[in-house]
Amino acid sequence: MLDFRYHAISLAAVFLALVIGILAGVGISGRGFVDDAERDSFNRRLAELDGQVEAADELADDLERRQEAAQTFVESAYPVLADRRLEGKNVAVLVVGSVDTTVDWIERALDRSSGDLVRMRAINVPVASEELETRLRRAGFSKYVDKSKLDELGRELGRELVDGEETPLWDLLTPALVGEREGHFDAPADAVVVIRQAEPQQGDTARFLSGLYGGLASSGEPAVGVELTRVQQSAIPAFQRSGLSTVDGIDTPLGGLALILLLGGAGPGDYGIRDTAADGILPPIEPLAGSGAGG
């Protein structure tokens, strides 16, 4: 919607500039006026631009009405569409930084869809890479003992977070890496949600996070990076570079439903209302197994 608005504003600015140019041309003309051919050309260009402005404005208004209608539909249909969609599914949550209200919105979506939050881990950033190396060296994990191996370490931690059960790296590194935690690694996760609350990271931490996101994305289970409607610096591009699906506006019914659909197995993609949502507002909504009408 905003793109069309900006387009309309741009056309209006061109329109105004052209009018000013005509007036200026009249003012500097030796006779105080332009000839008939030039006047006709200016008039045709003005009429074309005026039509383009009106068309762009009508298109923007139409798109706005469609978005409002879609949002109204989702808000009213959200409980029905979400009901039992994640029943029996375990969902893990990874938070980069401190835990905030975004986790609450994820829990609401899981409650709506009968999903279970099996575990949550919030990691401290920037990572204490030297302390991690010390712990890894003492425990015999020499393959990860080097700053150049931080992406591999992150990737393996991502796989352990999803797979659960045997998690030697999380067991070893939790004191140096994890700020807050909930749940255990007793069972595998059927899907994972990623939240980045911290500012974008550089150097060692950036390499570690890139590997961590990549490990989640390659786990074979749905992995979705999410964020609120309003953020200071979006994490969506970083999630996308690592192969995660994404949802913006997780604090809205549209965002909540998009997350539920992705966690439930909808095709991966980028959804929401921002320009990063290349695949639209919502994934395709498939009927739940056994919900079709009998014949």
Brief summary of the model shown:
The protein contains nine helices and seven strands.
Percent strand: 5-15%
What CATH first level of the largest domain would be assigned? Alpha Beta
Mean pLDDT rating? 86
Give the C-alpha Rg: 26 Å
Counted by DSSP, the helix tally is 9
In one word, what is the shape? globular
Task: Output the CATH topology of the largest domain.
Answer: Rossmann fold
Give a quick account of the main beta sheet: strands, pairing sense, barrel closure: 7 strands, mixed
Q: How many separate structural domains?
A: 2
Distance separating the two termini: 43 Å
Q: What is the correct CATH architecture of the largest domain?
A: 3-Layer(aba) Sandwich
User: Which strand order spans the largest sheet, edge to edge or round the barrel?
Assistant: 3-2-1-4-5-6-7
> Based on helices, strands and strand pairing, what is the structural class?
alpha/beta
Q: What low-confidence regions span 5 or more consecutive residues with pLDDT below 50? A: 1-6
Name the CATH homologous superfamily of the largest domain: Response regulator
**Number of E-state strands:** 7
Report the order of strands and helices: HHEHEHHHEEHEHEHE
Please bin the fraction of helical residues.
40-55%
Give structural notes.
The chain contains nine helices and seven strands; from the N terminus they run ααβαβαααββαβαβαβ. It has two domains: 2-80; 85-271, Response regulator (Rossmann fold), CATH 3.40.50. It has helices at 2-28, 36-82, 101-113, 129-138, 150-163, 168-177, 203-217, 236-241, 253-263, and strands spanning 90-96, 116-123, 178-183, 191-196, 223-227, 245-248, 270-271. Strand 6, helix 9 and strand 7 (270-271) form a beta-alpha-beta unit. Strands 3-2-1-4-5-6-7 form a seven-stranded mixed sheet, sandwiched between helices. The longest helix is centred in the first third of the chain and has 47 residues, at 36-82. With 295 residues, the chain is α/β, with parallel strands linked by helices. It starts with a helix and ends in a 24-residue tail after the last strand.
